[in-house]
Amino acid sequence: MEKRKLIIVGSGPAGYTAALYASRADLAPLVIEGHEPGGQLTTTTDVDNFPGFPEGIMGPELMANMKKQTVRFGTEYLQTHVTSVDLSKRPFKVVCENGDEFEAETLIISTGASAKYLGLKDEKELIGKGVSACATCDGFFYRDQIVHIVGGGDTAMEEATFLTKFAKKVYIVHRRDTLRASKPMQERAFNNEKIEMVWDTAVTEIIHDQTGVTAIKVENLKTGEVTERATTGLFMGIGHTPNTGFLNDQITTDEHGFIITQGQHPDTNIPGVFACGDVQDSYYRQAISAAGSGCQAAMRAEKFLED
Fold this sequence. Notes:
Elements: E1 2-9, H1 12-24, E2 30-32, E3 46-47, E4 57-58, H2 59-72, E5 76-78, E6 82-86, E7 92-96, E8 101-109, E9 113-115, E10 131-132, H3 135-138, E11 146-150, H4 154-163, E12 169-173, H5 183-190, E13 195-198, E14 201-209, E15 212-220, E16 226-230, E17 233-236, E18 240-242, E19 273-275, H6 287-306
Parallel strand pairs: 1-2, 1-8, 2-5, 8-19, 10-17, 11-12, 11-17, 12-13
Antiparallel strand pairs: 3-4, 6-7, 7-8, 9-18, 14-15, 15-16
């Protein structure tokens, strides 16, 4: 069984940045990229909020550049998925979907969190063309437009409020006639004149043309009435699922499954195991914050190995 100083599970801006710092520290990291190499940014079009690109950059190009930079310093990549790990003792054991097995002195988990979608026809194909799960990332592109957001919790209220900075009207589509969101978040949404609730309603179809989303079909769950609503943006405010199933409850997580890190550091409850990016961040969920946490994780892994 091949033994490594450091294995990084997952890619994206967190994993790639961790690999960059680790490879420059001569840790010879192995990155096991997972089912979606590059993470969620590979499904994003224009990225205008990552520093250093005054004209913006396409998400896939940004991820390709990050990976290329790590390869320059000797990072190795394996295009497979980690199915299980044994963290009961060091070196840790890592088992991959393709049958490969490794031992690792340290482990960085950067497997991210997958946005929840509705499962509608053409939904995934329209990501970046009117469908989004990140208002902070994409709200700017909907200036003076009408948008809809699905959800009834704090995430939906927060995203809807953010969208009002750009959109001329934001409709919150919710399956019930009451919200799950906290009272302060509800009040913020109710008191915003740009936000309007669409109660007891579910989105059933996304209508689009070659330019992207043009409307949605919705069904009133009490009356059964189906109507069409014009919109250029459909945002998912129904949360994210952290990709931690392969850990088999060996790492301490919060009630939503996000990894709990220790204080200001990326350390987990298991010495030698670190977490970075969206898998431990349910609040910011930005490429730049993920990259920063990847840097921290690599530096902590280096310090751990030195000690």
